[in-house]
Amino acid sequence: MNIRMVLLASAAAFAASTPVLAADAIVAAEPEPVEYVRVCDAYGTGYFYIPGTETCLKIEGYIRFQVDIGEEPLNGSVSNDSDWDARTRGQVQFTAKSDTEYGPLTGVIVMQFNADNASDQSAILDSAYLDIAGFRAGLFYSWWDDGLSGETDDIGSIVTLHNSIRYQYESGDFYAGISVDELEDGFYKTGEEPNNVGVAFGVGGTAGAFSYQVTGGWDFDNEDGAIRAMGTVEIGPGTLGLAAVYSSGPNSYYSAAEWAVAAEYAIKATDKLKITPGVQYYGDYYVTGDDFSDGDAWKVGLTVDYQIVDNFYAKASVQYLDPEDADDSTTGYFRLQRSF
Fold first, then answer.
1. What residue range is the signal peptide (predicted)?
2. Do the beta carbons of residue 75 and residue 116 sit within 8 Å?
3. 34 pLDDT exceeds 80?
């Protein structure tokens, strides 16, 4: 065998023992670690950590369908004995909380979407405020928005949502606070402009089966104020609620009458059914103008709540109002609401 044959045989053997690489191998990149949402149980049910932060967030809200009925115009365009109006609402609330050296820092945003029909819709900021160490500032509902559990009582302000700043002390079953409120869309006497301020206070708490609240407010533009007391106590198969309110003159905190008393009894008929009859009497009922009238009024009503399944309930309410110096009226509504 000559040298040429030896070289060719050696080259063939080397090629057979060497793997063929047509191109560089493709190596898949290692996947990035995924940070799953963590439950935050420090502030109650429903909170979770915003990924990458120590802030806890809760998302909740409701969807509501309601049909209003009544003898009074409901939308300003029709008035007869068979007025009715269907409307739908969706509301979403975002609550963010995080720990600080002063205690939890809370931020709340509530968006509300209303539709009377396909062409009459609105989106509003229902609330937006920050809260820390008992101080709250922003757009939120005042203590005058609170009331008895039924729909008959009329013991609150015309408008209870204000840009306000307040401090509220809380200790166990007791709270007390004071607020400064911008009253731009409340009650105004002739010649007054919507540039008003008020100061309100709230004191309340619970003691066993009894709960109570005392609320007051002074309207500086109208130079009048109001004070209200209400309480509830569990008696028998239900809860008895009583309330009384006095106003020195029509103002943004209370303008329905010079004084009023209200009562209701919320009967827990079953685990899912609650029936609440109620009654209210107004002294010097407000009709129109800058002051209360000399006539009184009374109101009676019935509200029924039924829980269909968890987080889904139906409510029906009917109310009859009979003022001395104005026409009587019957109003009511039927509501379906799903909360989440």
1. 1-22
2. yes
3. no
199 three-state secondary structure: strand
16's enclosing H/E stretch is: helix 3-17
26 phi/psi in degrees, rounded to 5: -90, 120
- What is the sign, positive or negative, of the torsion defined by CA atoms of 86, 87, 88, 94? negative
pLDDT band at 10 (very low <50, low <70, confident <90, very high): low
Q: 195: pLDDT confidence band, cut at 50, 70 and 90? A: confident
Check: CB of residue 88 under 8 Å from CB of residue 114. yes
pLDDT in tens, 69-120: 986 544 444 444 458 999 999 999 999 999 999 999 999 999 999 999 999 9
| Strand partners for 322 | 298
Q: What are the E-state strand segments in 220-295?
A: 224-235, 238-247, 257-268, 273-285
- Domains belonging to the chain, first-starting first, are 135-340 (2.40.160.10)
Q: Are 127 and 142 in contact (CB under 8 A)?
A: no
Farthest-apart Cα atoms in the chain, separation: 136
Q: What is the pTM of this model?
A: 0.85
Of 301, 259, 265, 266, the C-alpha closest to 281 is 259
Closest CA to 230 of 251, 216, 215, 248: 215
Residue 36 has pLDDT above 90, yes or no: no
Reported as a single tens digit per residue, the pLDDT across 283-302 is: 999 999 999 999 999 999 99
Give, in order, the Cα–Cα distances in Å from 47 to each of 61, 110, 187, 338.
14, 16, 39, 20
Bridge partners, residue 259, by sequence: 246, 283
Residue in the block written with tokens 């309480």: 231
Residue type, 269: A
Would residue 269 be called left, alpha or beta, if left means φ above 0 and alpha means ψ between -120 and 50 degrees? alpha
Helices and strands counted in the chain (H then E): 1, 17
In angstroms, the CA 174 to CA 195 distance is 34
- Tell me the two tokens of residue 123: 């989106």
